[in-house]
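Team,

Forwarding the record for the chain on the shared tracking sheet. I've put the sequence and predicted structure together so nobody has to dig through attachments.
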Amino acid sequence: MALQPPFCPHRKPEERKRLVKKNLHHPTDFEEITRRISRLNKNSPGKWGKMDVCQMMRHCSCVLKIPQQKIMLPRINLLFRIIGITTKKEMQLFNNGIPRNMPTFQKLIINFECDFDEEQQNLLKTLDDYLVHFKNGSLPDHHVLFGKMEEKDWGFLEYKHLDHHLKQFNV
């Protein structure tokens, strides 16, 4: 059985979409994420999880600060590193999303009140700062959980993380 290229006209649009790996380093994917963030409002309902929309945006800003080395995560044990590396490879291989209600590092849990407008602007600025780090070639080559990282890994995983939370809030 021959493999079909991802953009065969006979494939349904949802099949073609699944085969494309989006990445924050691609201008169209970056713009898509910023548009979706801009569509959030303070009353955006969450489909799952404990965070409200404001807390989610603060959480996403914190996660984007990891490759900028503005937030450092604590070391983890070998078992969790193996799970993290395996998860990264699985996501890249199958282009699947992040499971709902996954545990996260304590440093990245936001469980306090915050201001919607401030967090929305902060997330958009942090996203722009991330892009500057990418363009300057200053993304780190390692992640505490996911192990060895290349630029494409950062762009793919950061896109997946933002996409996960934006879907959580219906955008």
